[in-house]
UniProtKB/TrEMBL annotation:
Keywords: Monooxygenase, Oxidoreductase
Protein name according to UniProt: Putative monooxygenase protein
GO function terms (MF aspect): FMN binding; monooxygenase activity; riboflavin reductase (NADPH) activity
Organism of provenance: Fulvimarina pelagi HTCC2506
Flavin reductase like domain boundaries: 1-148
Any one Gene Ontology BP term: pyrimidine nucleobase catabolic process
Top-rank taxon, per record: Bacteria
Amino acid sequence: MRRFAAGVCLVTTDGGAGQRGLTVTSTCSVSSDPPTLLVCLNTASALNQRFEANGCFVLNVLSAEDEKLAKAFAGEGSLEQEDRFALGKWAKLETGAPVLKSAAAAFDCRLVDTKVVATHRIIIGEVVGIAADARTSSLVYLDRTWHSL
């Protein structure tokens, strides 16, 4: 799978179950009407249950300048959640989930369905808000290395 190039995103949530964020590459668009996307989360981490419990998430498409955040949210440095979030500047759109201000694009989603497949839970969200910066490059992960497009 390391030969499969993928855009790098931070998926974030906040609500009654607590704040959570992590780096992901397994995500894609599902539909344009209504705008819907999916994210795959490893079931090994109990903290990932917060996405379903909060009922919302933001898919933050990272810019090349956000590599440090990508590494931190992937677990490098073993930072606690609040310390990871302290590394970025955040806003909120419709759902209240954290939107990274430096993201190339951010899709604010209301959770509409989940499904467990093998080791991962697929969360599906309807996009209810968007923020974008067309002036920035995107961060890509290929062969265990970060790249800029």
